[in-house]
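Dear U.,

For the methods section draft, I wanted the exact inputs and outputs in one place so we can describe them consistently. I've listed the two proteins in the order they'll appear in the manuscript figures. Please don't edit the token lines directly; just add comments below if something needs changing.

First protein:
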Amino acid sequence: MDAAKGYETHLAAGGKMLVTLGGAMSTAELGISLAEMIRRDKVHAIVCTGANLEEDVFNLVAHDYYERVPHYRQLTAKDEQALLKRHMNRVTDTCIPEMEAMRRIEAVVLKEWMAADQAGERYFPHEFMYQILRSGALRKSYQIDPKHSWLLAASAKNLPIIVPGWEDSTLGNMYAAAVIRREVKNVHTVRTGIEYMTGLADYYTKNAKTLRHGEGSIGFFQIGGGIAGDFPICVVPMMHQDLQRRGVPLWGYFCQISDSTTSYGSYSGAVPNEKITWGKLAATTPKFVIESDATIVAPLIFAWVLGQ
């Protein structure tokens, strides 16, 4: 529980916490614990994949149609083909129904994309999600307790969200199709990843300071690997090395939950000390690596921080 105590200590010292979501944590229903962390002001910004952004909403409106496949490791290619034929998209042991989840959301968000395009307006992917949630267009379709949706909790707080590589998501593919069909004429109606990075730099500049113990005031809590973690952690060396800014604090806390081991070919398996050489962390930064299943560990840490 050292990582949880470190999280708690960082907040108690007046720090903020940025949480990153890799993997398929939304489909694993991390919202059950993460939403309460957001409501209790234990999370101040989120960086997530496009999949985690949309899959929280998929789960919100189509949960009753999901199918569990506990024996997923024994599925044959023919078994997988049968799931495809039924339009059941498998994520580990959970199948997401295309029509009830993906196409239902597409129908709602496409209207928002087209309206923004026609008005000459541009928004980030998470802002479009906030719009459809706040509009109430999906409320009658909720199939879980809304308190278990982390995106609803984030929307209520107007929490900053960064979604690098959104184009790789299901909705990103649908957006590309809408552009090809000319339903959306300006491809930049959905704002880009570079704009997310410049926005993150602005957020960091406004919110980061040096705490009394010498650490930076924004902590970094990474769940899983990949772009969700790799993208935001680079904002600090970018400001130091590329913008030549002085006095920008390094990240004040770092924890990564991952079952990846360090190697050239691993999935974001670099240990924290390696990040020192890239100007992301200091030698004195509290650092933790938990090599385990994030679907088990993250809720346990959140429960500790929440005092549950």
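Second protein (the one for the lower panel):
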Amino acid sequence: MLRHLVYRYLFKDAAISFLAVFLVLALIMVGGVFVRLLGRVANGSIDADLLLPFLTWGTLQSLSTLVAVSMFLGILFSLGGMFRGNEIYALRSAGLSDWQLLTPYAWLGAMTAAGLLVMTFWVQPMAEQHIKALRAEAVHKMNLAGITPGRFVTFPGSSRVVFAERAGDNEDQLARIFLFEELPESMRVVAAARADQLTISEYEGDYLELTDGRLFQGRPDGDRFTRGVFGKMGFRLPSPDQNPLVADIDMMSVSALLEKGQPPHLAELHWRLSFPVSILVLAILAVALSYSGPRQGRFGSLGIAILVYIFYANLLGLGKDMIEKGATPGWLGLWWVHALFFFAAVAILLRQNLVLRRFFARRGKTTEGATRP
């Protein structure tokens, strides 16, 4: 009964630290994403109506990494406080070993891993689908009404920069427009009296028609430019990225990834699985790396723990690239990375148990000798 009370106390304290770290990191991340999206709304890259959907689905897209970091730091902060208050030493002197100490944190890691499994295999692919749809809608809405007169605007998905001096007679028209475009071996500058957006259903796209303008084209490092005059000139407005391997693989279901079975698909499958598996490994690592001596600060091992996490995350990314390139067999996946850090954590726990046993054994002998008449 007493052991269950201790487990409940440790679990509750770690869960509170986990939630506190998660809220702080989520606030920082959402604030950064909001500022970037607000800047894109200000320069006309996306419509203001798409700000909240982009923020919502973009946050869900990055939630897995945030949860993993928060749980790792939450356990470290919780145990760091207990080391500072000598609670851990009291529990260990009462016979609680590192393996028993690991039990509540393993339960916390297992519950978090179950949630991340749902997140990475179902919620995040759905978020990717919504993000792609929102990008397509943003490009579709990137018409002349989205170009603010007096400001430079870059069309998404292209190297064209547009500047309009003033608005036209309607929302699909601008007056005195300047367009700059980088070509493979030259650059082009176009100045026109008017610009109109046209939708041509036959070609399934929107076009920008320039009227009564002049064109200058040449090399930036050269001294000769070609000059031309035109009555009307048009070009197709940018459309969403249509690269199926890059754009669609993040949105594929687990069954579709298994059916394809190519190295990029297997890499994506192992990458999704790595988040819930790494949560379990990180829970053990946090307990192993949280040890601090009586004279150390509350977070004596925090710096080393953060470096270990960074190394773990980068090694997972490297392992994913190796699977995509075929350097690692699909059956091995990223399991070798998880196994490396799991056995490292177990080795640290074994060493700590041995050191603590010797410490308490010496302390017991010293106490016995001091009380002997």
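Candidate sentences for the figure legend, describing the second protein: Strands lie at 152-154, 161-167, 173-182, 187-200, 205-218, 225-236. The chain has two domains: 2-139+245-371, 146-236.

Thanks,
Y.
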